[in-house]
Amino acid sequence: MLHLWTPSLIAQNQGCLSVASLLASKTGEDWSKVYSSIGFGDRGNDIVENTRKILSFSYYDLPSHLKACLLYLSLFREEYGIEKNLLIWKWIAEGFIQNEQATTEIELFELGEGYFNELINRSMIQPMGLEDTGYVYGCRVHDMVLDLVRSLSSEEKFAAIFDSDDQKLVGSNARRFAVHGRNVDPQLLNMGLAKVRSFSATECSDVNVVTSCLQVVRVLTLEDCIVRESCGKHRLLHVGNLHHLRYLGIWNTQIDELPKEVGDLKFLQTLNLSGTGMQQLPECVGMLKQLLCLRINDSIAVPAGLIGNLTSLQELKLWPVDDVSTRQFVKELGKLRELRILRCTIHVSDESMERALLESLANLHKIRTLCILGSALARGITGEEARFVPPQRLGQLCLECFRFSGLPAWINSSLLLNLTHLDVTVHVVQEQDMETLGRLPELCYLKLNSDHTRLVSIRKATGDLHRCFRKLRFFLAPSSFVRFDLHGCKRDPSIAHSIMMPSLESLVFSVPVRFLKDMNIQPGFGNLIGFEKVASTSLQRVTTTIQCEDATAEEVEEVKAALAHAAELHPNRPTLRIEMENEHKML
Question: Of the residues 11, 157, 406, 477, which has the fewest C-beta atoms closer than 10 A?
Answer without folding.
Answer: 157
